[in-house]
Recover the amino acids of this structure.
């Protein structure tokens, strides 16, 4: 057996994950990745008794299958291994993280630099102040450093531009300035409610996206039997994810207009974001939807009054939004700044393993809602928005089209919600919170947050406790896309390109 095949949120026995020699592991991964519908969702290592065990999950978007396979080596006798990155560039971020965390040497890796400077990194002598920046020599070249401290509310991150005049030849992005030890806290905070609240704070602007991955996985690992009531709860969870998507997307539209000095768009889109994000305040008491999702039950029922409020919000939003997006995407001064700025192509995005909007703006159909459907998306037959130009215009238009599509799917769910004639589970589940998970399991949970593919992986030990928990935010892949987008652009184009991706610092640093 080369791999064990599973599906999104379907656990398998850890012992059933094939453990290969590294040479065979390398061959299997290389062969599977030749298929353009296959990409790597996660590749990590963890200490399993006396071994360092490596887990790789490859997703086949054509069949909705997840392929798990593994290799391992003794913790006290780590050996250098050939870098997969040399053959499949998309593995660069995974191998760099493993090297930093455990000291594994990946031979012939082209860019084996630190990823996060995590507190528990293998070599504490590698300090963030001594990051090995790439250098371009030349009499007329110069460097411009931005950050890590920025004006306004931007989180800490350093951007090093290598320029010839105003033209950027290379941008290197150095992160790792903030850490909360998220993954370790999953193991040291044993109560399920603690872990849920922890997940809500991985990235504040993606509370639903990350927490949905967590609750779906926990319900699988706890072996919760789902009945007809879960259909309604799945619908509400999917609805919440699309409301979050609309709110963040329209906020980004506002910021993009600000960066091209289109004040009307900035003001109107900014104002439109407020009632959408504030809907969560009425639903669960928190405008970022913290507290809305819980394992095994719904603490905040979706009442007829809430439905009426959301319908009204969407009606008012739709009229104003459609008028404003039309003005924005037909205004020559806006298009002059959006079009042909920060161009990326399909080959580049495939090479770095891009996910979410960064992939779809170049024609790569990578959207978990369609390829590995979760919750109510199994009933919606979601069709991803695909564009091809790969520039700031594509990233802005992607948001515009996804906002319209999200509104349509929310309305579809609202029209169906009370036809189910069933109440979702609404009571605190003491029977869940006080028991153990299924022992010796591994479960991969994928959701499509507004930035793209979110991947959570949980592994339980023989006692039914969490042995390892792995989080991957889409920004892990897509920061490289921003760096590539700046090449051969003027340095003054950085703000609009940066905003067009709107990547997460905290979701990357964890």
């Amino acid at each position: 057996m080369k791999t064990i095949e599973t599906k999104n949120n379907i656990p398998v026995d850890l012992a059933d994950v094939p453990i290969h020699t590294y040479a065979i592991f390398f061959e299997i991964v290389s062969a599977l990745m030749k298929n353009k519908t296959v990409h790597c969702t996660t590749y990590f290592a963890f200490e399993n008794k006396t071994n360092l065990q490596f887990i790789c999950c490859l997703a086949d978007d054509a069949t909705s299958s997840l392929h798990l396979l593994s290799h391992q080596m003794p913790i006290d006798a780590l050996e250098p291994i050939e870098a997969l990155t040399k053959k499949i560039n998309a593995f660069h971020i995974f191998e760099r993280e493993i090297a930093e965390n455990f000291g594994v040497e990946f031979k012939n890796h082209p860019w084996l630099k630190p990823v996060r400077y995590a507190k528990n990194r293998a070599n504490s002598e590698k300090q963030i102040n001594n990051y090995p920046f790439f250098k371009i020599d030349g009499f007329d070249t110069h460097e411009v450093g931005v950050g890590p401290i920025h004006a306004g509310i931007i989180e800490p991150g350093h951007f090093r531009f290598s320029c010839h005049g105003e033209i950027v030849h290379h941008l290197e992005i150095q992160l790792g300035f903030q850490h909360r030890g998220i993954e370790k806290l999953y193991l040291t905070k044993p109560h399920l409610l603690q872990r849920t609240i922890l997940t809500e704070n991985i990235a504040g602007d993606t509370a639903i996206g990350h927490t949905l991955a967590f609750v779906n996985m926990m319900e699988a690992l706890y072996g919760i039997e789902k009945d007809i009531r879960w259909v309604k709860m799945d619908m509400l969870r999917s609805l919440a994810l699309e409301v979050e998507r609309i709110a963040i997307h329209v906020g980004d539209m506002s910021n993009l207009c600000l960066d091209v000095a289109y004040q009307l768009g900035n003001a109107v889109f900014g104002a439109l974001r407020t009632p959408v994000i504030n809907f969560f305040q009425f639903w669960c008491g928190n405008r970022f939807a913290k507290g809305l999702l819980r394992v095994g039950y719904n603490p905040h029922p979706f009442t007829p009054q809430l439905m009426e409020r959301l319908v009204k919000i969407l009606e008012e939003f739709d009229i104003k939004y459609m008028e404003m997006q039309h003005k924005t995407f037909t205004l020559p001064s806006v298009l002059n700044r959006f079009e042909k700025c920060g161009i990326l192509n399909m080959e580049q995005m495939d090479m770095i393993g891009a996910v979410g909007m960064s992939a779809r703006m170049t024609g790569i159909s990578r959207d978990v809602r369609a390829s590995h459907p979760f919750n109510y998306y199994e009933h919606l037959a979601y069709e991803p928005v695909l564009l091809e130009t790969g520039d700031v215009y594509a990233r802005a238009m992607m948001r515009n089209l996804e906002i319209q599509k999200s509104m349509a799917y929310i309305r579809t769910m609202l029209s169906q919600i009370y036809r189910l004639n069933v109440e979702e589970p609404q009571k605190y589940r003491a029977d869940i919170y006080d028991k153990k998970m299924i022992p010796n399991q591994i479960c991969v949970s994928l959701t499509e947050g507004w930035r793209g593919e979110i991947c959570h992986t949980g592994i339980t030990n023989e006692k039914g406790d969490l042995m390892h928990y792995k989080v991957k935010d889409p920004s892990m892949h897509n920061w490289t896309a921003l760096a590539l987008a700046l090449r051969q652009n003027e340095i003054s184009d950085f703000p609009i390109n940066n905003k067009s991706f709107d990547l997460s610092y905290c979701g990357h640093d964890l």
Observations:
- The chain has a mean pLDDT of 94.
- DSSP finds 18 helices and 13 strands in the chain.
- The two ends are 35 Å apart (CA to CA).
